[in-house]
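Kindly review this protein for my students:
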Amino acid sequence: MYAIMATGGKQYSVKKGDVVNVELLNANVDDVVKFDVLFVNDDGKVLTGAEVENACVEAKVLGNGKGKKVIVYKYKSKKNSRRKHGHRQPFTAVEILDICL
């Protein structure tokens, strides 16, 4: 069984036991959070739309962190104009406990 959940403007395909890095959540370590479900595939039985209104994905927060550094370098040729900027996107690691139907 797997589900497609939505959080932080992104969608993730998850199944029980997966560890997923999602956008930063306002939750403490070992908290249990619930996510909305868009789609469930239960051994060939597909549930979408109104069939998954009450469905949810329960996950345990493992911790917070930062992703790899992304370098943004801008320059204009022949103008001696250069700008280097780095960014590390924060994330929350969660472990999928259960897919509730």
Observations:
- The two ends are 11 Å apart (CA to CA).
- The beta strands are 2-7, 10-14, 19-23, 32-42, 45-48, 56-66, 70-76, 81-87, 90-100.
- The CA atoms of residues 55 and 101 lie 5 Å apart.
